[in-house]
């Protein structure tokens, strides 16, 4: 009998047995189930298993938090359940879509595009944040000079790091078209080539179009096409990527296999590039500009505080639904249009607020050793920008700390937007997010961060003593 045999048998029983499991995989800390009938899962019974630290359902998957030993437990569970170990996370995502409505599937598609890009975006955000510190903050010679101005080493580092920052953000369309090809199961190198054609050096840089007197063109005799690049543009890349993928998928069905290697790539890529520059590029740019103008105008208008309050309060629930993935596209569009984003600071503040509510719960439940194993790592990850463990493992389970965090996030967002705080880029959320804030706004953002820390902690303590808190503890069968 293995170390986790009893726990694995209990979990199998409480998720409805092997016949109720469509796909099961695991990540760094969680078991991910796609169940045929989610109503057969006994959530309370699962959470009462000694090894289990919490559960939640997201993107059509029933997820069970195990901890660092999840890989070993998964192997034991697979043997007992007889579900095999050949399923991949992609298999789970495909199966999970059967449990989603139309809106959830659309959001899932958007998440599939941006999720593979997150490591690069995080690195890019950190790099631009570091360049921000050494190149913009006057910390030397009585506050009159930056590190770059007094040190050749730091000047060289500042210039060198832009090589990476530019590759990530200016050439982002290459990553997007690759991610779409990967998602759609088409030829990924064609997606990369398509992306490169959108940002090629021979094109007029997107940032220089507004001030250009003469825009170069491709002259076909009967028609001319402007040679405009789409550096940092999100929507043109998304549209072009899907056109290429659907062309390739359609051509595979009609072109015989014996010649498909030659003709499918050619008749998919060439028309896709032409359509991208003639139709989709201009249309996507117009749509992206309209979206960014609406968001930016809304946040900088006299009613900006109201928009900030709504967004700050509702962002955490958006994470539950997965709709928060849409903000990546909006942030990136704002960066390309306005040289920064006033949306990202609110996201970082929401992360901090959720982590702060967990900090309060760590103190309130300090005698509960099992919960400490979940809450302490969850609070740390929240402060570093990853909110799901805290939200699903602690805050949503009790409800009142989740509400406290939403209120704290709302107040902090109002301060941020009301003060005109702008971030140079997106990147690591939570406390490290201050590195991405424009230098002149850092103190104001620090004030908003303080609010996002203090308000949720205080409010969580207060709500714990109310009827709402008492009912939460009774519902979970816990004592304080």
UniProtKB/TrEMBL annotation:
CDD domains linked: PTS_IIB_glc (cd00212)
Pfam families: PTS_EIIB, PTS_EIIC
Subcellular location field: Cell membrane
InterPro entries per UniProt: Glu_permease_IIB, PTrfase_EIIB_Cys, PTS_EIIC, PTS_EIIC_1, PTS_IIB_1, PTS_IIBC_treh, PTS_Sugar-Specific_Components
Main localisation: membrane
Active site: 27
Start and end residues of each PTS EIIC type-1 domain: 108-479
Membrane topology per record: Multi-pass membrane protein
Membrane-spanning parts: 113-134, 154-180, 189-208, 228-247, 259-283, 303-323, 403-423, 443-464
Domain PTS EIIB type-1: 5-87
E.C. code: 2.7.1.201
Keywords assigned by UniProt, alphabetized: Cell membrane, Kinase, Membrane, Phosphotransferase system, Sugar transport, Transferase, Transmembrane, Transmembrane helix, Transport
MF annotations from Gene Ontology: transferase activity
NCBIfam families: EIIB_glc (TIGR00826), PRK11007.1 (NF008236), PTS-IIBC-Tre (TIGR01992)
PANTHER family: PHOSPHOTRANSFERASE SYSTEM TRANSPORT PROTEIN (PTHR30175), PTS SYSTEM TREHALOSE-SPECIFIC EIIBC COMPONENT (PTHR30175:SF4)
Protein name: PTS system trehalose-specific EIIBC component
Native source organism of the sequence: Litchfieldia luteola
């Amino acid at each position: 009998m293995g170390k986790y045999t009893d726990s694995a048998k209990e979990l199998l029983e409480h998720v409805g047995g092997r016949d109720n499991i469509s796909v099961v995989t695991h990540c760094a800390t969680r078991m991910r189930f796609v169940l045929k009938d989610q109503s057969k899962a006994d959530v309370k019974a699962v959470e009462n298993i000694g090894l289990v630290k919490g559960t939640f359902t997201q993107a059509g998957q029933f997820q069970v938090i195990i901890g660092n030993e999840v890989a070993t437990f998964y192997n034991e569970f697979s043997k007992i359940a007889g579900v095999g170990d050949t399923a991949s996370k992609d298999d789970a995502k495909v199966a999970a879509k059967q449990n989603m409505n139309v809106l959830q599937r659309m959001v899932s598609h958007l998440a599939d595009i941006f999720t593979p890009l997150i490591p690069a975006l995080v690195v890019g955000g950190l790099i631009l944040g570091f360049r921000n510190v050494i190149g913009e903050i006057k910390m030397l010679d009585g506050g009159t000079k930056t590190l770059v101005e007094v040190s050749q080493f730091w000047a060289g580092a500042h210039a060198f790091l832009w090589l990476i920052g530019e590759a990530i953000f200016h050439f982002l369309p290459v990553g997007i078209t690759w991610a779409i090809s990967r998602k759609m199961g088409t030829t990924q190198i064609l997606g990369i080539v398509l992306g490169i054609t959108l940002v090629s050096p021979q094109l007029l840089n997107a940032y220089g179009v507004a001030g250009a007197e003469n825009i170069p063109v491709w002259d076909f005799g009967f028609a001319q096409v402007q040679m405009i690049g789409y550096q940092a543009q999100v929507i043109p890349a998304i549209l072009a990527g899907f056109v290429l993928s659907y062309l390739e998928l359609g051509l595979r069905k009609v072109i015989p296999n014996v010649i498909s290697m030659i003709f499918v790539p050619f008749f998919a890529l060439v028309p896709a590039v032409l359509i991208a520059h003639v139709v989709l590029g201009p249309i996507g740019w117009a749509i992206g500009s309209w979206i960014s103008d609406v968001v930016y105008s809304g946040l900088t208008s006299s009613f900006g505080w109201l928009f900030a309050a709504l967004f700050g309060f509702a962002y955490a629930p958006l994470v539950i639904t997965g709709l928060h993935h849409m903000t990546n596209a909006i942030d990136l569009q704002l960066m390309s249009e306005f040289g920064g984003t006033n949306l990202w600071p609110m996201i970082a503040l929401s992360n901090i607020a959720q982590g702060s509510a967990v900090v309060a719960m760590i103190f309130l439940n300090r005698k509960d050793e099992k919960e400490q194993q979940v809450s302490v790592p969850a609070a740390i990850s929240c402060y570093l920008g990853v909110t799901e463990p805290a939200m699903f493992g602690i805050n949503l389970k009790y409800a009142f700390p989740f509400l406290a965090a939403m209120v704290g996030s709302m107040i902090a967002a109002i301060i941020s937007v009301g003060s005109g705080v702008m971030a140079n880029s997106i990147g690591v959320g939570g406390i490290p997010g201050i590195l991405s804030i424009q230098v002149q706004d850092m103190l104001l953002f620090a004030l908003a961060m303080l609010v996002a820390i203090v308000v949720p902690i205080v409010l969580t303590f207060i709500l714990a003593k109310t009827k709402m808190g008492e009912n939460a503890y009774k519902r979970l069968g816990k004592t304080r």
